[in-house]
Design brief:
Blueprint lengths: L1 E2 L6 E2 L13 E4 L13 E5 L3 H12 L4 E4 L9 E2 L2 E2 H8 L6 H6 L17 H6 L3 E3 L2 E5 L2 E4 L3 H25 L11 H4 L11 E3 H4 L1 E6 L3 E2 L19 E2 L2 E2 L5 E2 L16 H19 L1
Parallel strand pairs: 1-16, 3-12, 4-5, 4-12, 5-8
Antiparallel strand pairs: 2-13, 6-7, 9-10, 10-11, 14-15
Length: about 290
């Protein structure tokens, strides 16, 4: 049995989302379409990875007042040295760093902030008028509290982008590739505009915030899977490289299941080949 529903089909919100006033519109990143579909007023976007960054930019360019609760998330430029960043990640092997190697460095990170049409950074968003906040930590009687770490989040994203660009530079030099020289990316060299002093608390009504968009990730809904011992206590897959703990059961399309490539369209052929090989081996054994 191949379970190919992945684990990105159920939006995840922090528990304190239930404490927001009923009149505040709450939607998840997966439900966002455009600014006109929201109630009039200011918007708080929670989460600064791909969805959060892109939605915040779409809203501010539509003329909305936007607050962005940031997190410790990496960033990638869209283009670098003449090629799309994804091409360099594939060619250099950076996208094939294994799950085990990643776990040796700590918890599996979220996908980095990447723009669809151009580079997006926290500082480029702030230059357009997005108000950068630290991590959202709680809700109490219509007031939201934030940690004082927005500046650290900008720095962390800068360092992540610089590290990847340096690794690509090394790959180009090592292989004698004729690539254009690196050029400054406007979204990365612009300075961040941060509230001074940092905003640690917000009254939703006073700030005119009528909508909160949760860009806080997803989890899988595997409640329909009734095979014993294939899910953990949280109802998520127990697996090794997509191979379930029960032989003959496979989970396809899980992010970081095997490597950084996992969970993207680039991993389909690799995962399919592994599963088909094992299935064929099992059929041959049965025969």
């Amino acid at each position: 049995m191949v379970i190919a529903s992945s684990n990105q089909n159920c939006p995840a919100r922090p528990p304190f989302s239930a404490l927001l006033p009923p009149k505040v519109q709450q939607i998840d990143a997966s439900a966002y379409r455009n600014a006109s579909g929201l109630d009039s007023g200011a918007v708080l976007v929670v989460g600064s990875a791909q969805s959060g960054g892109q939605i915040a930019e779409d809203l501010v360019q539509a003329g909305r007042t936007v607050f962005l609760a940031t997190g410790r998330v990496g960033r990638l430029p869209r283009m670098y040295r003449g090629r799309h960043i994804s091409v360099w990640l594939v060619l250099s092997g950076l996208i094939d760093v294994t799950r085990r190697e990643i776990l040796q460095q700590g918890p599996v990170p979220g996908r980095p902030l990447t723009g669809a049409l151009h580079t997006i950074s926290l500082q480029s968003l702030s230059a357009q008028g997005v108000v950068l906040l630290g991590r959202l930590t709680g809700v109490d009687d219509g007031r939201l509290s934030f940690s004082d770490d927005a500046e650290e989040h900008v720095r962390h994203a800068d360092e992540g982008s610089a590290k990847v660009r340096s690794q690509i530079d090394a790959y180009i030099a090592r292989n004698g590739i004729d690539a254009p020289p690196a050029e400054p990316d406007p979204a990365e060299v612009i300075g961040a505009v941060l509230p001074n002093p940092p905003i640690r608390s917000i009254d939703l009504a006073a700030r005119g915030i009528t909508t909160v968009i949760w860009c806080t990730g997803f989890r899988g809904d595997f409640g329909w899977v009734r095979v014993p011992a294939v899910l953990d206590a949280q109802g998520q897959p127990l697996h090794d490289n997509g191979f379930a703990s029960v032989p003959g059961v496979y989970f396809a399309g899980l992010p970081f299941a095997i490597s950084r490539r996992s969970g993207t369209i680039l991993a389909i052929a690799e995962e399919a080949a592994l599963f088909v090989e094992d299935i064929q081996r099992r059929l041959d054994t049965c025969l």
